[in-house]
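Expect chain and fold; thus:
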Amino acid sequence: MTAPGDFNDRLMSLGLSRASEAAAQASAPFIGRGDERAAHHAAATAMQDQLAQMAMTGRIVIGEGAPGQAPLLYTGQSIGTGKGPDVDIALDPLEGSTLTAKGKANAMTVVAMAPRDSLLAAPQVYMDKLAIGPGYPADLVHLDMPPAERVRALASFRGCDMRDITVCILERPRHEDMIAELRQTGAAIRLISDGDIPGVIHVAEPDLTGVDIYMGIGGAPEGVLAACALKCMGGQIWGRLVLRNDEDRARARDAGLTDPDRIYALQDMVRADVVFAATGVTDGLVVAGVQREPGFLTTETVLMRSATGSVRRMTYRNPVN
């Protein structure tokens, strides 16, 4: 196995951005066409083709599902040329398939890479998540704190009114009580229909996005991908698995996660330096969506490296037939 020190994230990062870009370009023809599955399959096929060409010995730890459940980019799949560093790959070839099909904002393609055995192999279950941006002391808020207390803690630290805090939450029936409690604080609530990876990323740039804190239950794999982004951009995130039934508990055990009550902090989900790439499919606050013009598709990709804290935005104008 290649030692973590042999993981040359600078050289690998461009290949990762190409995988993200290819997936976005492939899904672009399906924007607003009402076919989620076709959009997602096109993105997954394009991302797999690009990752297969990279000089790495890759293993997908966050993928499309278990072997036999997903035809492409499944968890545990080996990918790359087999010549190069041993790495973990976490991905979502189309975060926001529904958003893409409906032509709504914030759909993106996402992929991250880190040295082998450094990313939490979160199973396909739910996770209760809490995230804030950079500049706050450690554990100012935590998952065992009631939602209103989290808002109060942020406002107190910043010396502002709770009405000045904006909370991002997935709009789901399971969050109705949380939303009602937060309404009592006077905080603003930004409800999103899908896409909790960009929802979490928004807390890293509150001056741009207007989002101060993210909370609520979403996918566990998406929690790890969001943690990869915050590792690069700064911020804190915590997650606790939500195991609803025997099937969920079996998935957690199969992933080696035996303590259902454990709270995973950022450093538990991402244990080494990571490279993260996301390309916009539809317009969002993190990245712009795919732009069409006669003969060309233009994409915007954000490419981040935790080793340096660098955040690079790249525009790619690609000729198409």
The radius of gyration is 19 Å. The chain has a mean pLDDT of 94. The chain is about 30% helix and 25% strand. The longest helix spans residues 9-27.
